[in-house]
């Protein structure tokens, strides 16, 4: 889908550029080096502006296209590519704005000098934007997190899918996207740095011979590990009795997994332990109500 959209975008820009250049040279709009202040928004001015904007956007698209051809192997490299694409978009917008004003005969340097005080006021008003930009630079150089890392921010857990100059995009397991300003990326829990653990609590009846059952756990857990080596990084571990519940003894197990498999690993461990205990003749109990009539 994204490839089709990119191709359509390229074709549209190429057509606009070709039409603007053709019409511009045919009408003589491209012969003058630059427009003067006496120019009004005529057809010639529109053609020059359209050709310039289409050319800049086309160049930006080509640069992004070559960046997409890179297949980074590390999360760090993916982060650099992500923030580079963000820089390209901002740079293209600034170039179009400044070049467009220049084509209309506006003296950019004079405007910048005369609006120095106004720029200072706007800078103070836009302190949050500046904070986002500065924080984005520190995030890149400090490598606090990278594209592809699984992080948790304010209770929202997901994969970092994009790091921009101002914002970071995080996608959770339900494909919900949370966009956070870089200045608000505080108290981050990067869950990709270490091996994670999936836990399973499973119940057995009080009538079961616990000691005899515990002797069978090593072979059962090793069998589960061999079948689920694609998810489990090591053999599941029996941790012991977790709880003495009303109608059952609750046993706890855990297994090392990658952070992205933490929930899937728990579901697999639940299923395989249930089936394994049934093969050993142990059925998981369920709450029962005894009714006594007088």
Automatic annotation (TrEMBL):
Membrane association type: Multi-pass membrane protein
Pfam hit, one: MS_channel_2nd
Alphabetical UniProt keywords: Cell membrane, Membrane, Transmembrane, Transmembrane helix
Membrane found in the keyword field: yes
Mechanosensitive ion channel MscS domain location: 129-185
InterPro entries: LSM_dom_sf, MscS_beta-dom_sf, MscS_channel_2nd, MscS_channel_C_sf, MscS_channel_TM-2, YbiO_bact
Protein name: Mechanosensitive ion channel family protein
Origin species: Hydrogenoanaerobacterium saccharovorans
């Amino acid at each position: 889908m994204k490839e089709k959209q990119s191709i359509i975008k390229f074709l549209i820009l190429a057509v606009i550029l070709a039409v603007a250049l053709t019409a511009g040279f045919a009408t003589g709009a491209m012969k003058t080096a630059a427009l003067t202040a006496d120019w009004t928004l005529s057809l010639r001015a529109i053609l020059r502006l359209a050709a310039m904007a289409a050319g800049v956007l086309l160049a930006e698209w080509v640069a992004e296209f070559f960046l997409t051809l890179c297949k980074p192997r590390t999360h760090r490299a993916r982060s650099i590519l992500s923030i580079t694409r963000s820089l390209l978009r901002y740079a293209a917008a600034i170039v179009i704005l400044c070049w467009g004003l220049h084509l209309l005969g506006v003296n950019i340097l004079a405007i910048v000098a005369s609006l120095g005080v106004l720029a200072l006021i706007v800078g103070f008003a836009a302190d949050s934007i500046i904070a986002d930009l500065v924080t984005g630079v520190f995030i890149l150089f400090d490598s606090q997190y990278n594209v592809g890392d699984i992080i948790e921010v304010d209770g929202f857990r997901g994969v970092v899918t994009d790091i921009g100059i101002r914002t970071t995009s995080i996608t959770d397991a339900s494909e919900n996207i949370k966009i956070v300003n870089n200045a608000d990326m505080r108290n981050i829990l990067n869950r990709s740095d270490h091996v994670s653990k999936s836990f399973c609590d499973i119940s057995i009846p009080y009538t079961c011979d616990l000691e005899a059952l515990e002797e069978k756990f090593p072979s059962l857990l090793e069998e589960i590990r061999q079948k689920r080596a694609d998810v489990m990084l090591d053999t599941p571990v029996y941790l012991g009795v977790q709880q003495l519940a009303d109608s059952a003894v609750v046993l706890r197990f855990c297994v090392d997994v990658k952070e992205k498999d933490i929930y899937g690993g728990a579901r697999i461990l639940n299923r395989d332990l249930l089936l394994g205990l049934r093969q050993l003749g142990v059925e998981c109990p369920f709450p029962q109500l005894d009714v006594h009539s007088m």
